[in-house]
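Exercise: predict the fold of this chain.
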Amino acid sequence: MSSEQCPVTAYQETDGLRYFPRMLDKIRLHAQGVLRADFHENLGGGLDGWMCDFMRIDYAELVDRTKQGASDTDLLAWCQADGGGRDLNSSDIKGWNHLVTKLGWNDEATERVVMRKKESGLEDRDEIVTMIDYFEFDEGRRS
């Protein structure tokens, strides 16, 4: 049995913000040497990169800060203040959550979802239409 792990669901939230806990969990699991290998190449890229751009924070700085052991809530507060990011209001969070929840559904990420499904043997699963849908099936939270 492999000791490699998948991160938490992208639906998990910190102070209402989806995906942030997943990005932090990937950082922590990678630092512990237990992050599933297929996640390594995209650390800081993909949705991690999009989230950092959205928040206007540097991924490498976030990695350093996360490795120091702060909680998700403390890291989000740091991102919005000392981390050089921006303060997110409820409309920012609502917009991000909508984007991350629908990404891959008739947009620039659709081809990526199709490719990932094929790579994982899930190409016959028509109910998988977004990146988060794909994550849920690929990581075993849904079947």
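Check your answer against the key: The chain has two domains: 1-87, 103-143.
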